[in-house]
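README: folding subset

This subset contains proteins for which both the sequence and a predicted structure token string are available. Records are stored as plain text. Below is the entry for Asl1-like glycosyl hydrolase catalytic domain-containing protein (414 residues), shown exactly as it appears on disk.
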Amino acid sequence: MDLSPKLMLILLLVLFLTPEYTLAAKHKRACKASVTQSGPSATVTQSIDAIILVAEPTSSSDISTPTSGLGAVQTTEASTPLYTDKVIGSMDLPKSDTISAVSATSTSDGNITASSVVGTTTSVAGSLSVPATSSATTNGSPSAGKAGVGLPVQEVDAAPVAQFFTPESTVAWWFNWNKNWNQGVMTSDGVSIDGEFVPMIFGPTYLDNEDTFQEGFTELMGYNEPDLKTSTGVSVYLEPAQAAETWKTQIVQIRQQYPNVKIHSPVMASNKTWLSDFFKAICPDNSPSDGWGDCVYKPDYVSTHLYNTDVEYFKGTLTAFQKEFGLPMVLSEFACYQFGSDPHPSLEEVSTFMQETTAWLDQQDWVVKYAWFGNARNSEYLFGVYETNRLMDASGALTDLGRQYMNGGKKISA
Ligand SMILES: *[C@@H]1O[C@H](CO)[C@@H](O)[C@H](O)[C@H]1NC(C)=O
Ligand SMILES: *[C@@H]1O[C@H](CO)[C@@H](O)[C@H](O)[C@H]1NC(C)=O
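--- output ---
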């Protein structure tokens, strides 16, 4: 193991007399955990779920520069922290210290368990006293981490989205149908947004355009609604075979450049047949029954949109969609609305729909992420979705529905 200073390792462990940390899993899966332990707490990314746990001392006096008693960790690629905004420090790993590995797993109820384990050592002299294992479980809610919001790039100013990312909010991620937000795509002067941003390649020409991907991104959304023929600019229509050709070149390029990034399939407006034809074109020798086997062109997740007002239809449609493609699923747009039938659901109906659908989405372990649609100041950027679905009003202030969404989708009693 190379322990040269070049290999700056992120500080995972601080031992104090009364160590007490908040172990926060930011961005995904869980929000907060209180941890009291004498062993290490951690900064971890888990390869599958990219869980990032960040140890934050509960009082500022604890943020003194650690001297002795530092454990340190994690040199495998899967553990390279992708987000460092809340990491409390970094250090060179002293050659003599015991290496403590840290792992994190999420349970189906949304809790996160972080464990520290004494791992292999290079040489031990004056080794740390690290418990063989120490663990802490979050009291995360199952919803934590899946919910996101989109703020259409046409809104230009990114600032209003920041309000969704409070410590109490279950909203964990956001997107703008484009490649970055504060690297030139939106205005962002002085805006800080404490949530994961997921870039998108809106259509094939976007991959190599002049915009850069958001720094530190861990997931990438695929072409937007290529199954939709429309002149409204919300999609770039492609035949499945045509999309498959560019996809095969582009996914190879992306995987080479960003090997750890999770890639979403092209995002369907609604047409399962389109996506099925697409998969047959990119992975002709594989099938969904084994998750498309070793097909090098397969995405990590399948992705769709769904606009409907009927909760049972919603559940059935998404279940069938995921079954057909056999990969974990992202629902990156949904609302209580149905295009073509022009429903005008009341605020109350939308609120109930949100509560029931989000509760169900949270329970399905094959749902990776979801995002309510209806988050823009300008009505034009609701693209026809009925106004009662708004998470923010025309001035950018949160609506009651926006607050409900931040509350795990559960209605807030007045
Ligand atoms: C998850 O956390 C809740 C609330 O703290 C707790 O009741 C439950 O037992 C935990 N589940 C597991 C699997 O630890
Ligand atoms: C769905 O996609 C397939 C494949 O491109 C196409 O043949 C079919 O017409 C589409 N269906 C609808 C309803 O647009």
